[in-house]
Structure formats: structure tokens, C-alpha cells
Amino acid sequence: MSPSSKVSRDFALQMEGYGLATAEILYRLPDHPRLLQTFLWQEYDLCPRFPELNKFLEFWQREIEGRLHSVRVAHSSLIKPAELRPVDGLFLLN
After folding, report:
1. How far is CA 22 from CA 42, 70, 75, in A?
2. Residues 39-47: contacts with CB within 8 Å, 24+ apart?
3. Are 12 and 5 spatial neighbours (Cβ–Cβ below 8 Å)?
4. How far apart are CA 46 and CA 52, in angstroms?
5. Helix (H) or strand (E) holding 88
6. What beta strand segments (E) does the chain contain?
7. 49-65 pLDDT, tens per residue?
8. From CA 3, how far away is CA 38, in angstroms rounded?
9. Which of 6, 21, 57, 94 shows the smallest number of beta carbons within 10 Å?
10. Which range, 69-73, 85-89, 90-94, has the best average confidence (pLDDT)?
11. How many helices (H) and strands (E) would you count in the chain?
């Protein structure tokens, strides 16, 4: 396969129905459990089940000392049918 015919992983995921998911994770500091810290996670994921986010949260609970407080999720499918339309012009840049 030539380099020009490769499709980026992100674009391929979008064509399979994945969208950009962003999670704001609040967790308690291990040494000071009354204090909350924020962690932002972003990856292409499938809404509404979010398998990638769930894998990450399972990893967090298993490996990270900071206990989870809450998770807020935003999701956007970046490629939508309404955004794909024919172009009626040709623009040349010199």
C-alpha cells in the first residue's frame, strides 16, 4: 500500500460510527480525600455504550490510587451526513 492511499485511524473510526468523546473525570486525591482533582480524557468512542471510556475507567479503578468521584461525558459525531455535500466550484490557490 502506498503512503498516499493510507487512511488515518481517526478517519476510519469515524466512518465506522465512532465519534469524539470527552470525559471530565473528578477524583479524590489519595493523600487529601476531601480535595478533588480534574482529569480530561478524550478518545474516539461509540455512543451510548462508550466501550473505550469504560475500559479506561476500569483501568483507573484497578491501577490508580485516586478514587473516582464523578464522570461527565460529551460526545460528538464529527462526520454527519448533512455535512457531506457536492461542491459546485473550483478554487485555485497560487
Report:
1. 4, 14, 6
2. 44/10, 44/13, 44/14, 44/18, 44/19, 44/20, 45/18, 45/19, 45/20, 45/21, 45/75, 46/17, 46/18, 46/19, 47/19, 47/21, 47/75, 47/77
3. no
4. 8
5. none
6. 19-28, 36-45, 68-76
7. 999 999 999 999 999 99
8. 39
9. 94
10. 69-73
11. 2, 3
Strands of the 36-45 sheet, one edge to the other? 36-45, 19-28, 68-76
78 in helix, strand or coil? coil
Are 66 and 22 in contact, with CB atoms under 8 Å apart?
no
Q: Output the pLDDT for position 2.
A: 47
Q: What is the pLDDT of residue 21?
A: 94
What would the grid cell of residue 20 be? Answer: 469524539
